[in-house]
């Protein structure tokens, strides 16, 4: 009796084990199938999370028909995913922004087309785009945002400045991006980080304690015997330029170079006493707003002529200084952009690469900044 009972018990165990075995096989099968489905999607760059959501939404075939698509991936990762907009997500170029899908949804609702949405997404960062989704549909999207350095946040100022002046859109965007639609010295940006491409003007300043990198004394041979300092790289570039000029029978000299904040303060005071406030406001940079504080600017003269703009040196330097990394900083007919009328003597070191671009495109440093650095 005992034996039969134990055989029965064994049989029951075996049946349970069989059942568990079959169940495990089925689960394993499902798992392998699931992994394969996921792998089909991850192969096209979809994340694990997106792939899972794609499968559960039964959109695998749709997604695979689109191939690799980063916007779709972001959509399926996002909790703001809206199936109604699937085709639109698939057609909008991806940008790396935290609230991308949430913002696309809002822009669709406002009534923007896919092209409009791409223009919006590529002209501001995540927070600028988010701000833009909070306003009504704007009228002149193409007019300004077909310009690649236009900024969403400046839209109202573009419209206003354009209305006021009738200038063409390129100029409007350039002008507003430089804050030139604001009064000089108001809402200015503090720069304070030394770099060879730094931009200082009446809207961008250096603090009192800003000192350029690698200041060094300029050999008196090149400074008319004056005690002048400037950035070492800029000084060496000047010396190379002056030596080549001298092979052409020309003689270049530096009349002014680095000026500290407090030196500029003294200059302002001196001129105020001599000529009054109006003169100073018009012709003398306020402390912090002088490019000479960067240690990268030189007022250049000729040993052969008192009026630099009449000298052979001036003609030579205009056409050759870019080869050494210098630009003519305040050219004629650019006062509206630079804020400073023609200064034939003032040259600025920016490095050879940038100097060549500025020279060849007849730009100002302001335009270079807007078009290349501030995007
Ligand atoms: Zn100067």
Please, could you describe this protein's structure?
With 375 residues, the protein is α+β, with helices and mostly antiparallel strands. 51% of the residues lie in helices and 7% in strands. It folds into three domains: 97 residues, no CATH class; 40 residues; 185 residues, Muramoyl-pentapeptide Carboxypeptidase, domain 2 (2-Layer Sandwich). The chain is elongated. 34% of the residues are buried. The mean pLDDT is 94. It binds zinc ion.
Indicate the structural class. Answer: alpha+beta
Main β-sheet: number of strands, strand sense, barrel status? Answer: 4 strands, antiparallel
> Which ligands appear in the coordinates?
zinc ion
How do the SSEs run, as a string of H and E? HHHHHHHHHHHEEEEHEHHEHEHEHH
End-to-end Cα distance, whole Å, is 90 Å
The structural domain count equals: 3
Helical content stands at 40-55%
The value of Rg in angstroms is 33 Å
Strand order of the largest sheet: 5-6-8-7
Give a quick precis of the structure.
With about 375 residues, this protein is α+β, with helices and mostly antiparallel strands. About 50% of the residues lie in helices and about 5% in strands. The protein folds into three domains: about 40-135, no CATH class; about 140-175; about 190-375, Muramoyl-pentapeptide Carboxypeptidase, domain 2, CATH 3.30.1380.10.
């Amino acid at each position: 009796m005992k034996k039969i009972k134990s055989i029965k018990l064994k049989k029951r165990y075996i049946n349970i084990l069989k059942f568990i075995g079959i169940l495990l096989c089925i689960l394993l099968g499902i798992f392998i199938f699931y992994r394969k489905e996921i792998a089909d999607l991850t192969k096209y760059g979809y994340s694990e999370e997106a792939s899972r959501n794609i499968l559960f939404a039964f959109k695998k075939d749709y997604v695979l028909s689109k191939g690799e698509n980063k916007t779709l991936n972001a959509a399926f990762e996002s909790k703001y995913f809206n199936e109604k907009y699937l085709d639109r997500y698939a057609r909008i170029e991806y940008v790396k922004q935290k609230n991308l899908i949430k913002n696309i949804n809002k822009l669709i609702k406002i009534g923007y087309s896919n092209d409009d949405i791409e223009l919006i997404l590529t002209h501001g960062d995540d927070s600028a785009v988010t701000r833009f989704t909070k306003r009504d549909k704007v009228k002149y999207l193409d007019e300004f945002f077909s310009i690649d350095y236009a900024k969403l946040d400046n839209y109202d100022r573009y419209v206003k400045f354009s209305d006021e002046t009738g200038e063409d859109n390129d100029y409007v965007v350039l002008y507003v991006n430089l804050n030139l639609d604001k009064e000089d010295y108001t809402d200015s940006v503090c720069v304070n980080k030394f770099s060879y491409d730094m931009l200082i003007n009446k809207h961008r300043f250096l603090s009192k304690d800003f000192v350029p990198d690698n200041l060094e004394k300029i050999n008196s041979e090149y400074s008319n015997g004056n005690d002048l300092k400037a950035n070492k790289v800029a000084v060496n570039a000047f010396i190379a330029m002056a030596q080549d000029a001298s092979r052409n029978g020309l003689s270049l000299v530096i009349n002014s170079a680095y000026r500290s904040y407090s030196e500029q303060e003294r200059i302002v005071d001196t001129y105020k006493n001599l000529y009054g406030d109006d003169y100073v406001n018009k012709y003398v940079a306020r402390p912090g707003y002088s490019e000479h504080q960067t240690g990268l600017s030189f007022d250049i003269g000729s040993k052969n002529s008192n009026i630099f703009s009449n000298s052979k040196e001036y003609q030579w330097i205009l056409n050759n200084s870019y080869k050494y990394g210098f630009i003519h900083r305040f050219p004629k007919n650019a006062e509206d952009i630079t804020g400073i009328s023609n200064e034939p003597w003032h040259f600025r070191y920016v490095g050879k690469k940038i100097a060549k671009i500025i020279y060849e495109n007849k730009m100002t440093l302001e335009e270079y900044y807007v078009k290349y650095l501030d995007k």
